[in-house]
C-alpha cells in the first residue's frame, strides 16, 4: 500500500469540498466529543435518553446533508468496503425480526430505559455508513481523535471526583433510576459511573477509547497538539477504569493491551523510554487508586481476584440466565422474539428459586452479547452478526500488516484492539446505546483505512427546480423527525416529575404529569399503567363512594389501554389486579372477579411472581373459595418460603373451616419467620386460649 495513500487527496488538507461535508464531519466530532458527556443534571431523565435524543438528531442532520449532496450532484457516490454486505445483512435481519416479533412496538423502539430496538440499531448502522463515506485524511482522523481524548479525559476526571466526593450530576436530580425513585445502592455508590449512569456502560466506553489512545502513544506517530493530552488522557482513563470495578471490562482491556503489545514490540524495543513512561502512568494510577475514598465496599485487588470465583457473586445468576436462555432460543430459533424483547419472553424460562437466590434482578438482557442476539434476532441474526465481526477483525488484522504509514497503522491497531476488548466484555454484559454508536463509528473508521473502491450511480439530471422542491420536502421531513425525536424526552421529563410528586404525596400534581406524559407519548405502556396506579390511589383515598367509583373507572380504562398496547407486560395486569383487589375490599365485592382475571393473565406471562399468587389467593378467599386460595398461597411459598403473609393467610383459612391444628402450625411457621408478627401472635393466643 502506498505510504501516503490515505493521507493525500483533495480532503487531506482539512478543507471540506462543500458546506455539507463540513456539517457531516463536525457532527461526527460532536458525536465523539459531546455524546459521552451529554447528560441532563437538572431534570430526569439524567443519562440515557438525552444521549439517544442527541444521537437521533445528529443522524437526521447528517442524513439531510448527505441527501443534499446527492441532489446537488444528481449522483449517488458510495464507498464499497468489505463490511458493507455483512452490515446490509444485519439491516435486513433487523427489519425482518421486527416485523415478526412478539411485540412490534417494543422491537421497533426498545424496552423502556434501554430503547435499543431496531430503530436505534438502524441508527448505529447509519453511523457506520456515514463514517465510511465521509471520513478520510489525517486531519479528519486528528479531529475525531482529539474529540475522543478530550471527552474521555473529562469523563475520567468526573469519575475521580465521584470516587472521592460525589457525582454532582445527582445533586439536583431527585430521581436516580429512570424507572423509579431512590438513590444508588451501596454497591453502585462504591463504583464510578460518571456521565453514563451505570459503571458497566462507563467501563465499556473505556475499553473502546483507552486502547486506541494507547496504540497511538506506543507508535509515537501522534500529532504535536496531542503531545500533552495523550499521556494525560491515558492515565486518567486507567484510573477511571479501575474505579468502575467492572471485571468484564478489565478482562476486555487486558486482551486489548496484549494485542497492542504483541503488534508493537518492535516500537517499544526501539524506544525504551516508553517502558519508563508506562511505569510512571502505572505508578500514578496505583497512587490514586490507593487513596482512601468515600466508599470502600471493596478494593481493586479483591474485585480482580473475584473474576475466577464463578460460584459466587454476580457470576451465578449470569450462568443460570445463560442456561435458561438456550430453551428460549430453541423455541424461536430462526428469527427470535424481536429486538430488545428479551424482558417480555424470558419470565417463562426463569428457573425455580430464582426470586429467592437473586432478589428478582431486572431481566431485560441476557448479559451475553451472542445469546442476546440469538434470542432477539434468532440464529439468522447471530450468523449475520458473527459474519460482520469475523470480517471486521480478520480484514483489520490483515490490513495492519499491509499498511506502511505509521499513523494509519497505529490508528488501525488501536481501533481493532478497542473493538476486541469491547466485544470481550460484551460476553458478560450487553450492548447499550450510550456506547454502541462509538463502536460502529470505530468499525467505519477501520474501513476508511483499508483499500476501498467507490461506487457511483447517476440518478437524474441536474434540475434547479426539482432540486428546490426536494430541498423543501427534505427540510420539512427533517423538522418533523427532530420533533418526533424530542417527544419521548419531553414525555419522560413529565413522567419523572410525576414520580417525584407521588413520592412527596402530591397526588393531583402527579396525575397531571402522568397524563401529560401519556398524551405526549401514548406508545409507552409504563406511562399508562403508572397513571392507572395513581388513579386507583386517588380512588381508594376518596371519602365519597361515587367519587371513588369514578376514579376506578378511569383507572380501569387506562389499565385496559396499557394491556392492549403491550399484552406481554405482566405489570399492567398485576397492577390492575391490585387495584381491583383493594376496590373489592372497600367498594364493591364484584371487583374480586376482575382481580382474579387480571392476576391469572399476568401469571401466564410471569409465573414466578410470589406477590401475584399471594394476592390472587386473597381475592379467592374473599369470594369464599378457600381451597383454591390455599393452593395459590402454597404456590407463593414454593417461590418464596419466607413469605410470612402466605403462612398467616393459610392459618386464617384453616381456622375458619375448623382445622385448628393445621391453623396453629401455619401461625407458628409465620412466627418462626417473623417473631414480631402481631396478627399471628394474636391468632395463636386465641386458639390456645379459646
Description:
- Among the domains are: 80-455, no CATH class; 607-690, Serine Threonine Protein Phosphatase 5, Tetratricopeptide repeat (Alpha Horseshoe).
- The protein is 70% helix and 2% strand.
- The chain has 30 helices and two strands.
- A two-stranded antiparallel sheet has the order 1-2.
- The longest helix is centred in the last third of the chain and has 40 residues, at 464-503.
Proportion of residues in helical segments? over 70%
Low-confidence stretches: 1-14, 176-182
User: Any idea what the shape is?
Assistant: globular
Total of helices: 30
Radius of gyration: 29 Å
Sequence of strands across the biggest β-sheet: 1-2
Main sheet overview: 2 strands, antiparallel
Please state roughly what percent of the residues sit in beta strands, choosing from under 5%, 5-15%, 15-25%, 25-35%, 35-45% or over 45%: under 5%
**Overall pLDDT metric:** 86
Structure described in brief:
It is built from 30 helices and 2 strands. With 690 residues, the protein is an all-alpha fold.
List the helices and strands and how they pair.
Elements: H1 19-37, H2 48-73, E1 75-80, H3 84-99, H4 104-109, H5 118-134, H6 138-164, H7 186-189, H8 199-219, H9 229-244, H10 247-263, H11 265-270, H12 273-290, H13 300-305, H14 315-331, H15 342-345, H16 354-358, H17 369-402, H18 406-426, H19 436-449, E2 453-458, H20 464-503, H21 507-520, H22 525-541, H23 545-565, H24 570-586, H25 591-605, H26 610-622, H27 626-639, H28 644-656, H29 660-673, H30 678-688
Antiparallel strand pairs: 1-2
Amino acid at each position: 500500500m502506498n505510504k501516503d495513500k490515505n493521507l493525500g487527496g483533495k480532503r487531506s488538507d482539512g478543507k471540506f469540498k462543500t458546506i455539507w461535508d463540513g456539517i457531516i464531519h463536525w457532527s461526527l466530532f460532536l458525536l465523539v466529543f459531546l455524546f459521552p458527556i451529554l447528560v441532563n443534571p437538572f431534570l430526569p431523565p439524567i443519562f440515557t435518553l438525552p444521549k439517544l435524543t442527541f444521537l437521533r438528531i445528529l443522524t437526521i442532520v447528517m442524513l439531510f446533508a448527505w441527501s443534499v449532496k446527492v441532489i446537488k450532484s444528481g449522483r449517488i457516490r458510495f464507498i464499497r468496503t468489505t463490511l458493507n454486505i455483512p452490515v446490509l445483512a444485519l439491516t435486513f435481519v433487523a427489519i425482518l425480526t421486527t416485523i415478526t416479533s412478539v411485540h412490534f412496538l417494543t422491537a421497533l423502539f426498545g424496552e423502556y430505559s434501554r430503547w435499543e430496538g431496531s430503530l436505534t440499531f438502524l441508527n448505529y448502522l447509519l453511523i457506520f455508513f456515514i463514517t465510511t463515506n465521509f471520513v478520510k485524511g489525517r486531519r479528519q482522523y486528528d479531529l475525531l481523535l482529539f474529540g475522543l481524548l478530550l471527552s474521555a479525559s473529562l469523563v475520567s476526571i468526573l469519575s475521580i471526583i465521584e470516587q472521592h466526593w460525589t457525582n454532582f450530576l445527582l445533586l439536583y436530580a431527585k430521581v436516580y433510576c429512570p424507572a423509579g425513585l431512590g438513590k444508588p445502592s451501596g454497591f453502585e455508590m462504591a463504583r464510578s459511573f460518571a456521565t453514563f449512569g451505570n459503571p458497566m456502560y462507563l467501563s465499556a466506553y473505556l475499553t473502546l477509547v483507552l486502547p486506541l489512545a494507547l496504540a497511538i502513544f506506543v507508535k509515537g506517530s501522534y500529532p504535536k497538539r496531542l503531545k500533552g493530552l495523550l499521556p494525560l488522557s491515558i492515565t486518567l482513563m486507567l484510573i477511571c477504569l479501575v474505579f468502575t470495578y467492572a471485571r468484564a471490562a478489565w478482562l476486555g482491556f487486558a486482551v486489548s493491551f496484549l494485542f497492542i503489545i504483541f503488534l508493537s514490540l518492535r516500537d517499544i524495543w526501539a524506544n525504551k523510554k516508553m517502558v519508563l513512561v508506562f511505569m510512571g502512568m502505572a505508578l500514578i494510577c496505583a497512587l490514586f487508586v490507593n487513596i482512601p475514598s468515600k466508599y470502600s465496599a471493596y478494593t481493586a485487588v479483591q474485585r480482580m481476584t473475584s473474576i475466577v470465583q464463578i460460584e459466587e457473586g454476580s457470576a451465578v445468576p449470569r450462568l443460570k440466565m445463560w442456561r435458561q436462555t438456550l430453551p428460549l432460543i430453541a423455541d424461536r430459533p430462526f428469527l427470535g422474539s424481536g429486538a430488545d424483547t428479551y424482558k417480555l419472553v424470558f419470565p417463562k424460562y426463569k428457573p425455580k428459586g430464582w426470586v429467592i437466590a437473586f432478589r428478582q434482578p431486572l431481566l431485560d438482557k441476557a448479559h451475553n452479547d451472542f445469546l442476546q442476539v440469538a434470542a432477539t434476532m434468532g440464529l439468522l441474526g447471530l450468523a449475520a452478526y458473527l459474519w460482520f465481526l469475523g470480517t471486521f477483525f480478520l480484514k483489520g488484522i490483515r490490513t495492519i500488516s499491509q499498511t506502511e504509514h505509521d499513523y494509519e497503522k497505529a490508528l488501525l491497531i488501536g481501533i481493532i484492539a478497542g473493538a476486541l476488548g469491547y466485544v470481550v466484555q460484551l460476553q458478560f454484559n450487553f450492548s447499550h446505546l450510550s456506547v454502541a454508536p462509538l463502536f460502529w463509528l470505530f468499525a467505519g473508521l477501520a474501513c476508511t483505512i483499508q483499500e476501498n473502491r467507490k461506487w457511483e450511480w447517476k440518478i437524474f439530471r441536474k434540475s434547479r427546480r426539482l432540486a428546490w422542491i426536494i430541498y423543501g420536502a427534505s427540510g420539512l421531513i427533517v423538522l418533523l423527525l427532530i420533533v418526533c425525536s424530542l417527544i419521548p424526552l419531553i414525555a419522560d421529563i413529565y413522567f419523572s416529575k410525576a414520580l417525584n410528586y407521588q413520592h412527596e404525596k402530591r397526588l393531583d400534581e402527579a396525575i397531571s404529569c402522568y397524563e401529560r406524559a401519556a398524551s405526549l407519548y401514548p406508545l409507552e405502556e409504563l406511562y399508562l399503567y403508572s397513571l392507572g396506579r395513581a388513579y386507583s390511589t386517588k380512588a381508594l383515598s376518596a371519602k365519597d363512594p361515587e367519587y371513588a367509583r369514578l376514579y376506578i373507572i378511569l383507572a380501569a380504562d387506562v389499565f385496559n389501554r396499557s394491556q392492549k398496547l403491550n399484552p406481554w407486560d405482566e405489570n399492567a395486569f398485576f397492577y390492575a389486579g391490585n387495584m381491583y383487589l383493594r376496590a373489592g375490599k372497600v367498594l364493591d365485592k364484584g371487583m374480586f372477579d376482575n382481580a382474579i382475571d387480571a392476576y391469572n393473565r399476568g401469571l401466564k406471562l410471569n409465573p414466578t411472581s410470589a406477590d401475584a399468587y399471594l394476592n390472587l389467593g386473597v381475592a379467592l378467599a374473599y369470594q369464599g373459595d378457600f381451597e383454591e386460595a390455599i393452593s395459590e398461597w402454597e404456590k407463593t411459598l414454593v417461590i418464596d418460603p419466607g413469605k410470612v403473609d402466605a403462612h398467616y393467610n393459610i392459618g386464617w383459612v384453616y381456622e375458619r373451616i375448623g382445622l385448628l391444628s393445621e391453623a396453629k402450625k401455619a401461625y407458628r411457621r409465620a412466627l418462626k419467620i417473623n417473631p414480631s408478627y402481631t396478627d399471628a401472635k394474636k391468632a395463636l393466643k386465641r386458639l390456645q386460649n379459646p
